[in-house]
Write a structure and sequence with these properties.
With about 70 residues, this protein is mainly α. The chain has helices at about 5-20, 30-40, 50-60; strands at about 45, 65. It has one domain (about 5-65): 3-Layer(aba) Sandwich (Rossmann fold), CATH 3.40.50. The chain is built from three helices and two strands. The longest helix is centred in the N-terminal third of the chain and has 14 residues, at about 5-20. This is PIN domain-containing protein.
Length: about 70
């Protein structure tokens, strides 16, 4: 899936929200860009990375944790 044109801007927005919540270290930049692209595409993320769960608390996007 190609990176969405607005992914970097959205990643920065989410990072700011996480910072306000004191969770700014919970998600790496690449995770934020991947999550923003998935959000724009409207797809569920399957992951074993808890960073995506933290991101989804801000975005409300679907994330399924697989172990």
């Amino acid at each position: 899936m190609p990176i969405h044109e607005r992914a970097f801007e959205r990643a920065q927005e989410v990072q700011l929200f996480l910072t306000e919540l004191g969770q700014h270290r919970s998600a790496k930049a690449v995770d934020l860009v991947i999550a923003a692209t998935a959000e724009a595409a409207g797809v569920n993320q399957l992951t074993d990375d808890r960073d995506y769960v933290a991101i989804s608390t801000i975005t409300g996007q679907p994330v399924t944790r697989v172990l």
